[in-house]
From TrEMBL:
Its EC number is 2.7.7.3. Pfam families: CTP_transf_like. One of its GO terms (molecular function) is ATP binding. Its main location: cytoplasm. It is found in: Cytoplasm. It catalyses: (R)-4'-phosphopantetheine + ATP + H(+) = 3'-dephospho-CoA + diphosphate. GO terms for biological process: coenzyme A biosynthetic process. Its cofactor is Mg(2+). Belongs to the bacterial CoaD family. It comes from Macellibacteroides fermentans. This is Phosphopantetheine adenylyltransferase. The lineage of its organism: Bacteria, Pseudomonadati, Bacteroidota, Bacteroidia, Bacteroidales. Keywords: ATP-binding, Coenzyme A biosynthesis, Cytoplasm, Magnesium, Nucleotide-binding, Nucleotidyltransferase, Transferase. Homohexamer.
Amino acid sequence: MKRIALFPGTFDPFTIGHQSLVTRGLNLVDEIVISIGINDKKLTYFSLEKRIAAIQALYKNEPRVSVRQYNSLTVDFAREMGAEFIMRGIRTVNDFEYEKSIADVNRKLAGIETFILFTEPEHTHISSSIVRELLRYGKDISLFVPKETELF
């Protein structure tokens, strides 16, 4: 049986930090489903279609990675995808506290385990929020997003 992990997020945009987590996660599971949650209350910089296309372009030659969108509870979507795990990355202790509380709820609701990967030190400062802020001011983001995503 394949071991599948769901990697949920908004990915607005998908950064080199996210890319690093997927690369490392593939050493732990057979397949990763990058799952873009649709949240009508959250304004995004890039359209859903552009985010999906960018991530698909990045992983076009990696059959163990797929990209899906969902509009439900993450644990429900994880079950729908046959995922045993939810994969998350954390940069700081604040991220840990937030992720732990969600992981506890997901385990109680659906019996799905969460595994956490710490970001590599060189990626700790990178976040989608910071990249969006740079874009708003017309700055070059090429150091922070995978070149294959064709976002710049």
